Amino acid sequence: MSVAESWSRVMSLLREHAPADHSDLPGPATEQMLAAAEERIGISLHGDLRTWLLQNNLDLPEEDVDDDVMCCGFDGFPDEGSFFLGIRAMERLYANHPLSGGSEWREEWIPFQSDRDGWMGQFIDARDGRIGRWFVGAPTVTGEYASLAHYFDSVAEMLTRIGAGDYPVCSVAEGRLVWA
């Protein structure tokens, strides 16, 4: 399955099981936004990341951005305590990554999911599209998923289990994901 198909499946499941959360998500990025971001960070985004951002740029509206936190996003999706990053948030975390300058962080790793402080999250390797995970104070994991599509498939499976009532740490109330 392609990244576009996997993300579409995630969005369909979110719309079905948590329609209020789904309705909060913004629309797509533009090619111009992506080109400007690539120029600012100095690296080309992986094709899967571009495809995903052209479907949904998950930046919060400017008026909802909290300058006191490293990253802002739509709380509770894809899980409690972390959220997908939009272009602005990706750039900010990329430029100020807690591990940047250290031997463990590489410039080709573009964060796409994080907690509020930027201490943990997931990244896509701009060279080959593999998905990795970082946690400050722990070893960085590379190749956790073969691609963004594979990662989104895991999110879709989680949403399917939530919808079936078979995911103990999450339920749905009033159209929103509620984490235990």
Question: Short summary of the structure?
Answer:
By secondary structure, this protein is of the alpha+beta class. The chain has six helices and eight strands.
Notes on the protein architecture:
The protein is built from six helices and eight strands, in the order ααααββαββββαββ. The protein is α+β, with helices and mostly antiparallel strands and about 180 residues long. A six-stranded antiparallel beta sheet has the order 1-2-3-4-5-6. A two-stranded antiparallel sheet has the order 7-8. A hairpin with a 5-residue loop joins strand 4 and strand 5. Helix 1 runs parallel beside helix 6 and helix 3 runs parallel beside helix 5. The longest helix has 16 residues. It is globular. It starts with a helix and ends with a strand.
SSE order and pairing:
Blueprint: H1 3-17, H2 19-24, H3 31-41, H4 47-53, E1 78-79, E2 82-84, H5 87-95, E3 109-114, E4 120-125, E5 131-135, E6 141-145, H6 148-163, E7 170-173, E8 176-179
Antiparallel strand pairs: 1-2, 2-3, 3-4, 4-5, 5-6, 7-8
